[in-house]
Amino acid sequence: MELDTPKPRRRGRPPKQADGQRNTRAALVRAGVELLTEKGFAATGIDEFLRRVGVPKGSFYHYFSSKEAFGTELIENYANYFARKLDRWLLDESTPPLQRIANFVADARAGMERHGYRRGCVIGNLGQEMGALPDAYREHLADVFTDWETRLARCLELARQEGSIAPDSDSRTLARFFWIGWEGAVLRAKLELSPTPLDLFAQGFFLGLGR
Amino acid sequence: MELDTPKPRRRGRPPKQADGQRNTRAALVRAGVELLTEKGFAATGIDEFLRRVGVPKGSFYHYFSSKEAFGTELIENYANYFARKLDRWLLDESTPPLQRIANFVADARAGMERHGYRRGCVIGNLGQEMGALPDAYREHLADVFTDWETRLARCLELARQEGSIAPDSDSRTLARFFWIGWEGAVLRAKLELSPTPLDLFAQGFFLGLGR
DNA sequence: ATTTAATTAGACGATCGGTCTATTATTCGC
DNA sequence: GCGAATAATAGACCGATCGTCTAATTAAAT
C-alpha cells in the first residue's frame, strides 16, 4: 500500500502529448485487479482503490460510470491477462503438450508464492461472491471459464492425438475437470498460505490422465 | 426472506421453564449460517441478520460481543452440522465405503438443487474471503477442512483395506484431493446454477480411484 | 418488596459507500 | 483568437452500516 502519493495531481484537461503518464485510468484498473485477487468485490470499497492509487473520487466516476461497470472492466482485464499467460505456455510448440500444462502450473504456483499466497484468482473470487454481486456478472464469469477450458482442451487434445493420454479421453471434459479442481486448489492454497494444495491437485490430475 | 415477523417479541427476562421458544440466539445463528452460504461475511451487514430474524440490535449485542465473535460461532455451528451430515453417510456400515461417499455426494447435490444452486459451503466462502477477514479465522477454517479430511480418509482407508481401491493408495492424500476439488466444484455449481460441476468432479474422482 | 438478572428497544456517533455537482485546465471549432 | 466543449480533479453529500450505550420491561432470587 503506497500511501501518500505527494504528487498533487493537476486538475483540468491534460496536455495532449508528452503528458508523461496517461495512466490514471489504467492505474485504477491495475489496482482494482490487485485488490480483487486479495479481497472480495463487495468487501472492497471504492475508497480503497482510490487510496491505493492516490486519486480522488471524482476521477473514479469520471472514468467509470459505477462500481459495477468498473467490476466488469476488471473481469475483462483479468480474463485477458490470464488468457495470454495461459497461451504463453499452452501454445509453446517446443514443448510436449502435457509438459506445457505442467509448466503453466509451475508458473501459477510461483506467482502465488511471490505474493505470499495472499492472492488468488479474480474469477474464482467473484464466482464465490455471486450471491452478493450484480447478476449480470454471472454469465460473464462463466464465459471466462469456458474460454480457459477451450484453450486447455486444445492442448489436451494434442496430447491425446500424440498418445500421451488415453485415446478414448474426452479433452473437453478433462479440461473442465481441471479448472473446477484448480479453482478449489487456489482457494485452499490461499487459506493455508501454502503451495501444497496446488501441487496435490496437479499431481492428482496428471495421475488421473495416465489411466 | 421472511420479512415482517409480526410477532412483537416480549421484552424482559423470559419465564424460566415452558418458555416455548428459547430461540432468539439460535435463530440468529441459523439465519447467520444461511446468509453465509449465500453471501460473503463482509458483504453481509448485521442488520441483515437481524431483519431476517426480526430482532433488534440490542439483542444481537446481548448475545454476541461483536460481529467477529458471531462469525466464529457460525463457523463452529456449520462445521458441526456438516460433520454430522458427513458421518451420517460415511459411517453407514450397511453400505460399502465407496458407495457411502457417492451417497454423500448425491445428498449434497440434492441439497444444492433444493436451494437453486444459490447456496454453497460456508467454509469455502469464508476461505475465499480471507483477505478481508479477521486473521483469527484462518486457522479455524483450516482446522475444519482437516477434520472433514480425516473423516473422509477413514472411509477411504476402509475401501483400501477392502480392496476397492489400489492397495498402495494414500487415503489421506486422496481425501485431501477430494476436498480441494469439491470446494471448486461447489463454487462452480453456484456460478453456473447447475449440478454438472458436482457430477463431473465426483465422476473424475471415482475414476481416479479406480487406477 | 426489593434487588438482581435477562432480554428487548432503539437512539447515537463515527465511518464509509457510492453518487453528484463544482472547479480548473486544456483543446477544438469556427 | 475567443467561446464552447472536453478532460480531469476536488470534495460535498446523503444514506447505510457498525458497534456501543442507555433505557425500558419482565421475571427470578432473596
UniProtKB/TrEMBL annotation, chains A, B:
Residues 45-64 bind DNA. Gene3D superfamilies: Tetracycline Repressor, domain 2 (1.10.357.10). It holds the Pfam family TetR_N. One of its GO terms (molecular function) is DNA binding. Keywords: DNA-binding, Transcription, Transcription regulation. Residues 22-82 form the HTH tetR-type domain. Transmembrane segments: none annotated. PROSITE patterns: HTH_TETR_2 (PS50977). It comes from the Bacteria. Residues 1-23 are annotated as: Disordered. InterPro entries: Homeodomain-like_sf, HTH_TetR, Tet_transcr_reg_TetR-rel_C_sf, TetR_C. This is TetR family transcriptional regulator. It comes from Sedimenticola thiotaurini.
